[in-house]
Amino acid sequence: MLETLFSLGLIKVCYLNILIIIVSFFLAYVAKKIIHRSVKRYLTSANIHLEGRKATWMKLLSQSGFALAAYVSIKCFNINNEGVTFKEFLDYHFIDTSKIKVSFENVILVILIVFGARVTLNVVRLFIQRRFKRNKIAEIGTEYVYTQVAKYVINVLAFFFILVALDVDAKLFLGGSAALLVGLGLGLQDVFKDMFSGLVLLFEGSIRVGDVVEFYDGKSSDAIVAKIIRINVRTTQIETRDGNILIVPNTKLTQEYIENWSHGSTLSRFRLPVTVAYGSDTHLVSELLKQAVLSHPKVHKTKGVDVRLNDFGENGLQMEVMFWADQSWDINVYKSEIRFEIDRLFRHYKIRIPYPQRDMRIIQSQFDATDAKL
Fold first, then answer.
1. What is the rounded distance in angstroms from the CA atom of residue 172 to the CA atom of residue 357?
2. Which of 251, 36, 237, 46 is CA-nearest to residue 144?
3. Contact by Cβ (8 Å): 194, 250
4. pTM for the full model?
5. Which residues pair with 312 in a beta bridge?
6. Cα torsion through 152, 156, 161, 165, rounded to 10
7. Rounded mean pLDDT of the chain?
8. What is d(CA 208, CA 199) in angstroms, rounded to the nearest whole number?
């Protein structure tokens, strides 16, 4: 006869039951890791990359071992319990107070709801991916919005189903937490602003995943050009040109001026300022600037190139060349390549870019007065 450690209602629990439960879930975890590693190694060697539906089904399959472990754990109680049904085990309240009563049935229902919510989310994600895959015109950002909204709705429904599974009245829960929510609302105004802004970004569609945006962070005069990676409830992840990932509050993208390079016309006009020395042949300089710009393959030749003499500066003639090109992620690289060509042409045609100059005037009368005193 196996020694009983403790009892859960009519169910007796012994060392063997605990050992079987631990071993079952440990083997399920190890099997998941081994299968995942083996499949990943095979796919890498075969140069196969799983995406969308196949990746989701692979994830669900790898988690099926835990369901088998749960079944084995429940059946192991038949070893030292005779005449006791599984229903009686589920009805046992291991938390039994005047206000809260929680049985194993409630716990299992909560686990099933959480697992069902994950499965439902994966199935909905598969459905959305399939629909957008058929629509060639649809954008990645739109697919992301539908997926995020589905995620929020499923999680909210799962939360209320959990309250029902625990026999908690949702009205009492909301009513009792009203004062707490008011306090949190006053103390966490910025957080709720960011959350509301996140919903605005998802539904409005003015900024979507994959868009390239330009904005100012308030710390420097230089604008930040970044790509939208992920829009969460409170924050947005962006990737800069340097490859750095920044976490930006959503209010930054909804309440301030943002230039979205991915919307509207793909063409934009860019400017390159150049200063040349006084006395330079401005007509020659203008032709050299146009030649340098038009030699670049990314510059649109049909839109034309303009050269202006903006001002007579302190150190030289301040000129500017303007050209049309795509609002590209690599526009700074294109500008740099054009500057290299301008420098090469200026050197070849002896066009001088002046250094800053200062004239010093010495008043002779001051020196004469000093010599007289000596």
1. 78
2. 237
3. yes
4. 0.50
5. 317
6. 110
7. 78
8. 12
